[in-house]
Amino acid sequence: MLGDRDDLSLLITSTTPTGAAQVRQRFGERVLRDWIPFDTPGAVRRFFTHWQPLVGVFVETEIWPNMVAEANAKAIPMVLLNARLSQRSARGYARVSGVIRPTLAHFSVIAAQERADARRLVALGARPDRVVVTGNLKFAVDPLALQAAYQAEQERLGGALRDRSVWLAASTHPGEEEAVLTAFLALRSVSPNALLMLAPRHPERADSILALPAMQGLQAIRHSEQRDMEKSDDVLLIDTLGSLGALTGFADLVFVGGSLVRHGGHNPLEAAVWQLPILTGPHTFNFATIYRDLVRCGGAQQVELTALADAVMSLIGPESDEHLATEMGARAGAFLSAQSGVIAAQWAALAAHLP
Q1: CA–CA distance, 328 with 325 (Å, rounded to integer)
Q2: Where in the chain is the domain with CATH 3.40.50.2000?
Q3: Is residue 198 within 8 Å of residue 213, measured between CB atoms?
Q4: Alpha-carbon span 250 to 275, nearest angstrom
Q5: pLDDT above 90 (res 27)
Q6: Hey, what's the torsion of the CAs at 93, 39, 355, 26, to 10 degrees?
Q7: Would the CA dihedral through 89, 94, 95, 96 be positive or negative?
Q8: What does DSSP say about strands 220-222 and 56-59: parallel, antiparallel, or unpaired?
Q9: In the beta sheet, which residues pair with residue 285?
Q10: What pLDDT digit, counting tens, does each position of 93-108 carry?
Q11: Cβ(345)–Cβ(135) under 8 Å?
């Protein structure tokens, strides 16, 4: 939208400091920024009076009844992009159908990720003629921007990573870092030159991760330290925002967290961009279809917590099958390449309601 409709001002709201920091880092002064108001009639009314929006956009699972109702009362189109609704969430919304049904009916258009999402949304009250299936925006990647960011990191990290087996554990949660470190120590016992890149889902947890008993004896560097890595570093702790996509390009293997514990998994597609083999735990309900298809095509492998170390060793250990890892990465990349046209489809859904 910033490129196609520069006649419009764009306001992006956030609910967390982390989200606000990402907006500021990615867009700077090109957009307006604010906190999303509490979803109460008074707070929403003041928000609308202050900003005077012409159209509103929600993304994925964000559905705020009072905000949608206020927009409807003011004849302001509301659009839900990249909409997803798991079976679990649908059951929860069904318990408050008196609120959710009119809310969904007020949306001018809903761009659903998959047919299953569209069916659940319609069953809960969305108007069938306003729901379109467009695919998942997470399939959309800017390869030029990613490559430029990778090159910037290369100057700082490249020498220390050369000729090393690099394992990235991305978007990890409490209870997963211990398992990752245990598996890494097993890898390091037979591959002393191995390196772990550890990216917690919430970077502010860096101190608590460094204090874990399994970290003792390992030489760790924080990405935020802005110093060059050394060959003697064992762990790169990624405690910065917006850098994971570029750093993924240095890995030989990626484990995507939130899946050994019941958080539903996280986006595996940054690994697929770099054509890397992907490991995930059993809890992937947030990205169920993506992981199902990745596993089916051979681009990802699902493992239990107790089997994580063995899976890592089989892919990047000294006795690993190099052809297997390469083939898995190629299949992950091919899966991503097959998903095209998502941005154009969702932009079309939104653009039809812009002034």
Answers
A1: 5
A2: 143-337
A3: no
A4: 11
A5: no
A6: -100
A7: positive
A8: unpaired
A9: none
A10: 999 999 999 999 999 9
A11: yes
What are the tens digits of pLDDT across the range 225-236?
Answer: 988 889 999 999
DSSP state of 253: E
Alpha helices in the chain (DSSP H): 17-27, 41-51, 65-73, 87-94, 97-106, 115-123, 143-161, 177-190, 206-210, 244-248, 269-273, 288-297, 308-316, 322-337, 342-351
Report yes or no: 333 and 275 within 8 Å, Cβ to Cβ: yes
Domain topology for 37-136+340-351: Rossmann fold (3.40.50)
> Which tokens belong to 223?
């990405």
Which tokens sit at 225?
Answer: 């330290």
The superfamily in CATH containing domain 143-337 is Glycogen Phosphorylase B; (3.40.50.2000)
Residues of the chain with CATH 3.40.50.11720: 37-136+340-351
Confidence label for 129 from pLDDT (cuts 50, 70 and 90): very high
Q: Can you give the length of the chain in residues?
A: 355
With 80 as the cut, is the pLDDT of residue 1 above it? no
Q: Alpha-carbon distance 139 to 268, whole Å?
A: 10
CA 59/CA 82 separation, integer angstroms = 6
Does the structure show a pLDDT above 80 at 218? yes
- Joined together, the tokens standing for residue 284 give 């992937």
Render 265-292 in DSSP notation, one character per residue: ----HHHHHTT--EEE-S--GGGHHHHH
- pTM score: 0.77
Residue 258: pLDDT band (50, 70, 90) is very high
